[in-house]
Amino acid sequence: METTELIEALSRGEDSRHQFKENFTNADALAAEIVAFSNTAGGQLFIGVQNDGTVLGLSHADIDRLNQLISNAASQNVRPAVNPLTENVPHPGGIVMVVTIPKGIAKPYMDKNGAIWVKNGSDKRRATSREEIQRMFQQAGQVHADEIPVEGTVISDVAMDHLADFFVKQYGEELDAALERDRISIGQLLNNLGLARGNNLNLAGLLLFGRSPQRYRPAFVVKAISFFGNDPAGDKYRDSEDIKGCLRDMYRGVMSFLTRNLRRLQGEKGFNTEGDIEIPVEALEELVVNMLLHRDYFISAPWRVMIFDDRVELISPGMLPNNLTVENIRYGISIIRNPLIASFAIKELPYRGTGTGILRVLKHSPNVVFESDPERNLFIARIPREIAE
Known about the structure:
It is a single chain. By secondary structure, the chain is of the alpha+beta class. It folds into 3 domains: about 5-130, Methyltransferase, Cobalt-precorrin-4 Transmethylase, Domain 2; about 145-210, no CATH class; about 220-385, Heat Shock Protein 90 (2-Layer Sandwich), CATH 3.30.565. The chain contains 13 helices and 18 strands. It has helices spanning about 5-10, 25-40, 60-75, 130-140, 160-170, 175-180, 185-195, 205-210, 245-260, 280-295, 325-330, 340-350, 355-365, and strands spanning about 20, 45, 80, 85-90, 95-100, 110, 115-120, 125, 195, 200, 220-225, 235-245, 265, 275, 305, 310-315, 370-375, 380-385. The chain has a 6-stranded mixed β-sheet, with helices on one face. It starts with a helix and ends in a 5-residue tail after the last strand.
C-alpha cells in the first residue's frame, strides 16, 4: 500500500472492512478482531491510528512486538488458524501497520475460548443465534439446511400421490409395488432416500413432498405483488398473492403470477395469435427455479416477487454463498447450497443441475442485473421492462 492509498483509506473512516486501532498489547483482544473479520467479509486493521483517523505512528520496537503478537494470535488464539498479512506503510504522522485479514473459507472461526465474533458495522459482536452459526457451518460445507429434521413433522405429512408420481418418474416403478417387494414401510423408504430422519421429515422431505409445508415453516412462502409505478413502498397494487405449497406448487404459482401480470407483445404474429410474453419464458423459468432452490434456508423469511412498471425483481433470502460473486455466476460458476433438494428437483422442476441456468438466462435476457446484498443478506435478480406508452 502506498502512502497516498493509506491517506485515502484513513480519510474514509471506519466501516465493516476497515478498523483503526492505536495499538495492541493483548493477544486475546487481537484474536477477537481477526475472528470477526474472518467470519464476515475480511478486512484491514490499521494499527497506529486513532478512531478519528489521526495517525500516532508506531516505533520500530512496536512493529517488532506487534509482528510477533499477530503471528501468535493468528496461529494459537484463532481456531482454525488464519494467515493475516502485515505491511508497514509510511505516513507523515509515523509508520502505520496495515494488517489484512482475508474472508475465511472454514467458518465459523472462533477465539481460544470458543467465542464466535462477527463484524457489526465498524465494531464487532458475538454471534449467539443458532441460525447465524448454522449459516457459517453451511458456508464451510459442513452442514446443509435441507438435511436438518423438522421438529414436529411425521411421516404422514408426506403427500403420497405426489411421492408416488416422483417414484415412477425416477425409478420407473410403482411406489406400492416397490414397498411390497422390499418389505419396507414408507417411513423406512423416506429414510433411505434421505428425506427423513427417524420419524421426522427433514427440510428437503417437507418442501419437496409435504402436504402442507407452511404448517411447520410458515415463513417459506412467496410474497408476490404487482405494483402500480416503480416504488416498493407504494400502497397501490394490481395483483397480490401469497404462494404456498411444496416447491413444485410454488414454482407453478410463481410462473402463473408472472405470466398473468406481464404484457404480451404481438410482434410479427397475426391478429388471432396470442402474443409472446414480454420477458422470455425461458429466462423466467430459470430465474424462478434458481430463486426457489438456492436460497439460504437457515433464514426464516419469504421469497419476494415484485413486478413494477419498469422492472421485475425476484428476491431470495441469503446472499451468494462462500466466495461466489455476481461476476462468477455470469460466467457459469455455481455452488449448490442445498444439494439434497437440488438432487430431487431434477424430476420436480425444469432443472438439470448442470450449473448453466444463469448462462441461459443471459442468453434470452441479456439485460438481467444480479445483486448479492451482504447488508440485507439477499440475492436479487432484476429484469428491466419497457415502460408501456
